[in-house]
Design goal:
Number of strands of chain B: 0
Shape of chain A: elongated
Structural class of chain A: alpha+beta
Number of helices of chain A: 10
Number of helices of chain B: 1
Strand content of chain A: 5-15%
Order of helices and strands of chain B: H
Oligomer: heterodimer
Strand content of chain B: under 5%
Radius of gyration of chain A: 23 Å
Helix content of chain A: 55-70%
Number of strands of chain A: 7
Radius of gyration of chain B: 16 Å
Chain lengths: 262, 37
């Protein structure tokens, strides 16, 4: 193998340089798309895939053209999978990173109690008045495309602000609000709907969106029904209805003391 | 999304994408070497 490597460098051809540049650009593009959509685990799979296929090509002495097809096929699959997100990034001209945590450790703990109280107060008020709402508790892990579909708020959590955003006929009331740590990060977001067919018929689009987002991303969503005022909590694609104060407190506590600390 | 403040506290773009770029270059170099020798 060493001799062949030596030979490779001695007889270095322009094709090798072109292959290298093309492949590096392709790999970087795939990594960038995956990072922008919080799919880091797929990046690891992609890295292993490229390495394994390269080793297989070396051992089986496959033609260069065939060997280069492997990473290309993966890149095409990524493009197909994230077509909408890529289109959005192209049209907006940039792919922004949203992974800056707003508060760390001690500051987070200090404010968490207050945030929990404010969120519960808002939820109960909205429930009492049959105001529909959907709040996503995220640990900086919401895909960029979803955050981009809303309007940045980046404000401290207060029950008044939450209620104002969800007040009917206001521009942002129909979308989802994303709470990231102790901040209301974005409001008016569009979420993917759950395609589950076994959901009760009385659950509308808001509930489907609340469940849909937790099916693909490790977040918790809290939904207030517009018709009944019932508060529900969704996590891991499962919906728990009729959430009382205790259940909400436990949900928010586990969000602040477990999810945010990881 | 409107101009936002998410950039606060995060390193600048070039520094942020440097690890990915290095990984992409290394991966591409290894692959090109393996498929051509």
């Amino acid at each position: 193998m060493l001799e062949r490597t030596e030979e490779f460098f001695k007889n270095f051809k322009i094709e090798y340089a072109l292959e290298f540049i093309g492949l590096a650009v392709l790999v970087y593009f795939v990594f960038a798309v995956l990072r922008g959509n919080k799919a880091r685990s797929v990046s690891v799979i992609f890295t292993l895939y490229v390495l394994v296929t390269a080793v297989v090509s070396y051992l089986a002495k496959l033609p260069v053209g065939v060997s280069l097809l492997f990473p290309l096929v993966f890149a095409i699959a990524v493009v197909a999978l994230f077509a909408t997100e890529i289109k959005r990034a192209i049209w907006t001209g940039k792919s922004k990173g949203h992974d800056g945590k707003h508060l760390e450790g001690a500051a987070l703990q200090e404010n968490a109690k207050e945030c929990i109280n404010e969120i519960i107060k808002a939820l109960q008020n909205m429930s009492k008045n049959n105001v529909g709402a959907i709040i996503i508790l995220s640990n900086s892990n919401m895909p960029t495309a979803i955050l981009d579909s809303g309007v940045a708020i980046n404000s401290n959590i207060s029950s008044q602000l939450i209620e104002s955003i969800f007040f009917p006929k206001t521009p942002l009331h129909d979308g989802a609000m994303v709470i990231n740590g102790t901040k209301i990060q974005v409001a008016g977001c569009f979420l993917p709907l759950s395609q589950e067919t076994n959901l009760p018929k009385e659950l509308g689009t808001r509930h489907r969106a609340g469940i849909g987002i937790t099916e693909t991303i490790n977040v918790t969503s809290i939904i207030v029904s517009e018709e009944t005022g019932v508060i529900s909590v969704a996590h891991g694609g499962k919906l728990k209805r009729y959430a009382d104060t205790e259940m909400l407190k436990n949900t928010l506590r586990s969000f602040y003391w477990q999810d945010m600390m990881n | 999304m409107k101009k936002n403040e998410y950039k606060v506290g995060t390193p600048n773009k070039i520094l942020k994408s440097l690890p990915l770029a290095i990984l992409a270059i290394v991966l591409a170099a290894v692959t090109v070497l393996l498929i051509n020798i």
